[in-house]
């Protein structure tokens, strides 16, 4: 499982977020955009339009959430 992001040439990194699933919604109005192992190549090679449509998909698998 990966978190999608954009790495700039200067080393700055931006984590991409999406609307939260029902599990994350009680904690925050956004959540990291999660990419499953089998979706990494699709994400990396996507057109901008495809990438935008992926960002609109909610992560439906259960996550382990623990207080920091």
Q: Can you offer a commentary on this structure?
A:
The structure is a single chain. With 68 residues, the protein is α+β, with helices and mostly antiparallel strands. It has one domain. It contains 2 helices and 6 strands; from the N terminus they run ββββββαα. It has helices at residues 40-45, 48-55, and strands at residues 2-3, 5-7, 13-15, 17-18, 31-32, 34-35. The strands form 3 sheets. Strands 1-6 form a two-stranded antiparallel sheet. A two-stranded antiparallel sheet has the order 2-3. Strands 4-5 form a two-stranded antiparallel ribbon. The radius of gyration is 13 Å and the shape is globular. It starts with a strand and ends in a 13-residue tail after the last helix. The mean pLDDT is 87.
Strand-helix topology:
Layout: E1 2-3, E2 5-7, E3 13-15, E4 17-18, E5 31-32, E6 34-35, H1 40-45, H2 48-55
Antiparallel strand pairs: 1-6, 2-3, 4-5
Oligomer: single chain
Which value, in Å, is the CA radius of gyration? 13 Å
Summarize the helix and strand pattern as letters: EEEEEEHH
Number of DSSP E strands = 6
Q: Termini, distance in Å?
A: 20 Å
Approximate helicity band: 10-25%
The overall pLDDT, averaged over residues, is 87
Q: What structural class do the secondary elements suggest?
A: alpha+beta
